[in-house]
Design brief:
Layout (H helix, E strand, L loop, with lengths): L1 E6 L3 H12 L1 H8 L3 E7 L13 E2 L2 H5 L4 E6 L7 H10 L3 E4 L2 H17 L4 E2 L11 H7 L5 E7 L2 H13 L3 H10 L8 H4 L2 H15 L9 E2 L7 H9 L2 E12 L2 E12 L11 E8 L3 E8 L3 H17 L23 E9 L4 H8 L2 E4 L7 E10 H7 L5 E8 L2
Parallel strand pairs: 1-2, 1-4, 2-3, 4-5, 5-6, 8-10, 10-16
Antiparallel strand pairs: 7-9, 7-11, 9-10, 11-12, 13-15, 13-16, 14-15
The structure holds L-homoserine.
């Protein structure tokens, strides 16, 4: 029997207990040992809940119990999670976490501590919720140079954008509905401003290049400026608008960003709607490979966490090699990154006038919209665009990924 402890009895923590109880026999068979939840740590009481008898409030009970071999950290936030995880690894306990803030900030160091102590630090659920993506990158996609990651990495914003697209509603209206239905947090900033997706693309990029990508270095734009009118144009162009986390290697320089993109009907991620996530990787040998599924939610996320517990049990005295060193990966300057743009400027501006400034453009016209001019630019560096747009009154600009 292997004893584990769960730190945090919130949505994911209670999901972990539920997954283990529901699929007990199956999970034990896969792990080769019976998995027993010995403790649940939470500050709160849960009278009447099955975990009442195993609930503890003091972490030292878990840390100092040598019978606990695996710690599941699902508290969220950097501290005290970081301290608890470090202490567990140093005590020879493996740790499985869903905590993307922790992994993005301290992943490399925690992997190093795990290696030193011949245990494992596993974080499958930190990106893409229930979608297997960390293990495939580490263990399956070991041959290719991955030169592009493009992912819909946040369920809340994908739900909002899908609703805006389908129902022609304003951002604020959909956000309010999403909050009422529990799909969006009361404080939605981390999701709608792109910070959550930023941590996730930082983790994926770090794993792909084996070095520390600091999330603070990633250009991040959320979806708060996307309007109903943008979707009217998107529909007219047979496209949609998605918040993408991207990292792209261009001739050895890696550019990483989170921003809304206009994507075409033939883009692999176009069918990823609602709360679903999709992650598209491109390898130099493999070509495209895509991962799709529920990027959030109690049971899908818990399923990924418990899959790590099974892995930790199977590799009790072996460190699973994960290449992610503390050495900083310097990212390319976003101003040097070239992409396409969908642009709206105030007033009626002729194609000639636009082309004098931007070079070739394609006008996008929609019946009944006469107070502005919309157009597409095929490819231009960010810095050049930012300079050239000064000659016009910008309404909105959305990057495109149409080819
Ligand atoms: N708030 C996140 C999302 C949860 O909406 O995707 C999963 O990380």
């Amino acid at each position: 029997m292997i004893n584990i402890a769960v730190l945090g009895y919130g949505t994911v923590g209670s999901g972990v207990v539920e997954v283990i109880n529901t699929n007990q026999k199956h999970i034990n068979k896969r792990a080769g040992k019976e998995i027993n939840v010995k403790y649940v740590l939470d500050l709160r009481e849960f009278p009447g809940d099955p975990v009442e008898k195993i609930l503890v409030h003091d972490y030292s009970t878990i840390l100092n119990d040598d019978d606990v071999k695996v710690v599941v950290e699902v508290m969220g936030g950097v501290e005290p999670a970081n301290t608890f995880v470090r202490q567990a690894l140093e005590k020879g306990k493996s740790v499985c976490t869903s905590n993307k803030e922790l992994v993005a900030k301290h992943g490399a160091e925690l992997l190093e501590i795990a290696k030193k102590n011949n245990v494992n630090f596993l974080f499958e659920a930190s990106v893409g919720g229930g979608i297997p993506i960390i293990r495939p990158i580490n263990q399956s996609l070991t041959v290719d140079h991955i030169d592009e990651i493009s992912g819909i990495l946040n369920g809340t914003t994908n739900y909002i954008l899908t609703k805006m697209a389908d129902e022609g509603l304003a951002f604020d209206t959909v956000l309010k509905q999403a909050q009422e239905m529990g799909y969006a947090e009361r404080n939605p900033e981390a999701d709608v401003c792109g910070y959550d997706a930023c941590r996730k693309i930082a983790i994926l990029t770090s794993l792909v290049y084996g070095k520390q990508v600091d999330y603070e270095d990633i250009y991040t734009e959320g979806i708060t400026e996307i309007t109903e009118r943008d979707f009217v144009y998107a529909k007219a162009m047979n496209t949609s608008i998605k918040l993408l986390g991207r990292s792209i290697n261009i001739d050895g320089t890696v550019y990483a960003m989170v921003a809304p993109f206009v994507i075409g009907a033939d883009h692999c991620l176009i069918g990823v709607n609602g709360v679903y996530n999709g992650i598209l990787l491109h390898g130099d040998m493999l070509d495209n490979v895509m991962f799709y599924g529920r990027g959030a939610g109690k049971l899908p996320t818990a399923s990924a966490v418990v899959s790590d517990v099974v892995d930790a049990v199977k590799h009790r005295h072996t460190n699973i090699m994960t290449i992610w060193s503390k050495e900083k990966k310097v990212l390319g300057d976003i101003n040097e990154f070239a992409c396409g743009y969908f642009v709206r400027v105030k007033g009626a501006v002729s194609k000639d006038e636009l082309e004098k400034v931007f070079g070739e453009v394609e006008l996008v016209t929609v019946e009944d919209i006469t107070d502005e001019t919309a157009f597409l630019i095929k490819s231009m560096k960010e810095a050049d665009f930012n300079e050239k747009i000064k000659s016009f009154e910008l309404v909105n600009r959305i990057r495109t990924s149409l080819n």
